[in-house]
Design a protein that fits this description.
The chain has about 270 residues and is an alpha/beta fold. It has two domains: about 1-140, no CATH class; about 175-270, Leucine-rich Repeat Variant (Alpha Horseshoe), CATH 1.25.10.10. It has helices at about 25-35, 140-150, 155-175, 175-190, 195-205, 210-220, 225-235, 240-255, 255-270, and strands spanning about 5, 40-45, 55, 70, 80-85, 100-110, 110-120, 125, 130-135.
């Protein structure tokens, strides 16, 4: 029998109870919730940064009979995020955009092997795996746990794709200065260039003077040209009155020809 979590006003059809998240740190809570010798998905919900946003998966089941499609947690290559108003889908009409989001971790043999993020209007099918829902997770505990996943550097590309990248996404969705400061730290100093670039991208979605300064510093000082180019893209994601003048400056004055070329490209898209 498939164990299925239907969220956003629907019923939880199968539920494995867990002790309150405040009783111990979130990493220990996650591991304690996992079923020994079996795949377990452990999830929690948090407030989300302001702005209409919907997250579901690439492989939604079109005929699932619920409003917003259904995501198979064990399948799919990722999550698609849309902003702005989203038309109603299927039988459920979404009157207002979500103000919270879900973080789910796949735990197998005591290790996190995948992280996924959704909004509560996306119904989830765990394909027979146990699914545990943690209550009252504190935002600061979430930041600490997600950051610990991103910080692991002795991992392969598959880990980066399935765990570190979505953990960065989850950090970017959390309101508050601590999440932003954590993103800034990764953008400045993560050992993996790809993750520095990803942190820069998500910082651009938050704007703010600290974020802008970090992006500009990456263009000037990061040792990797690919990270510099990613930072130029991040400038293009800022509000136009902030991003365009900085793109013009980079296009005119940066000493790296590839970086100047990328700045001209994004100016053409502005």
């Amino acid at each position: 029998m498939n164990r299925r979590l239907l969220v956003a006003g629907c019923w939880l059809l199968t539920f494995a109870p867990a002790s309150p998240a405040a009783a111990q740190d979130l990493d220990a809570q996650m591991r304690a919730a996992a079923a020994p010798g079996a795949v377990t998905w452990v999830g929690y919900r948090l407030p989300m940064v302001a702005g209409p946003r919907h997250m579901c998966c690439y492989d939604s089941i079109a005929d699932a009979g619920a409003c917003c499609g259904m995501c198979r947690l064990e399948g799919g290559s990722g999550v698609t995020m849309t902003t702005g108003s989203t038309p109603s889908r299927g039988s459920r009409i979404v009157l207002e955009p979500p103000t919270e989001f879900l973080v789910l971790a796949r735990i197998e043999n005591g290790s996190v092997t995948r992280v996924r993020t959704f909004t509560p209007d996306c119904d989830l099918d765990s394909s027979g795996a146990t699914l545990v829902w943690l209550k009252d997770v504190r935002p600061d505990d979430s930041v600490t746990w997600l950051a610990s996943l991103v910080a692991r550097t002795a991992q392969d590309n598959e880990w980066t794709k399935r765990v570190a990248d979505p953990a960065l996404t989850a950090l970017s969705l959390q309101p508050g200065d601590r999440a932003v400061d954590t993103l800034i730290g990764f953008a400045r100093a993560h050992a993996i260039a790809h993750l520095r670039g990803q942190a820069l991208f998500w910082l651009a979605q938050r704007a703010g003077q600290q974020a802008v300064a970090t992006i500009a510093n990456a263009i000037d000082a990061d040792p990797e040209t690919e990270v510099k180019k990613r930072a130029v893209f991040a400038l293009s994601q800022l509000p136009k009155d902030e991003g365009v003048p900085r793109l013009i400056d980079v296009a005119r004055n940066n000493r790296n020809p590839e970086v100047r070329k990328r700045a001209f490209f994004w100016l053409g898209q502005s």
